[in-house]
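seq as requested:
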Amino acid sequence: LLAVTIADVSTRYLSRVTEGAIALRVSGSVELVSYLMLFALLAAMAANVEKSQVVVEAFSHRLPQSIKNRLQGFFLLGFMALGLILFVGLSDSAAAATQHGEVTQDLRLPMGPIYQLAAILSLLLGLRSFIHALLGVIYAAGEEAAHGE
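struct tokens:
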């Protein structure tokens, strides 16, 4: 992601400095960055879902930590549902894109594998959320949530 952005900015600057004598371009840089950003965000969500909750303790500050962990577990069930909904939608999109030969606009990359990877990362988000939700609801185990400080 960063390499594509640096390469694009560098080649544009080189072209401007040489007044067009050296006109290298990174083809499809916006497209590459957007899909790489999608993968990075989905992977980051899946990797850190149990640590990413910001708790506003207006109502829960006097509750024991075990009850807070159980509430966090119930909250993670929502992320499980989000991950599974994204997985189903992206899997359907991957199947349709593969069947119809859909490609990206600039680089003409097949969309099927892009949707499949995003679907797998979404499934990983759902599975990790489910595991941490079970740990929180059943065993009151959980990560220390961020408190907005």
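Residues 2-139 form one domain.
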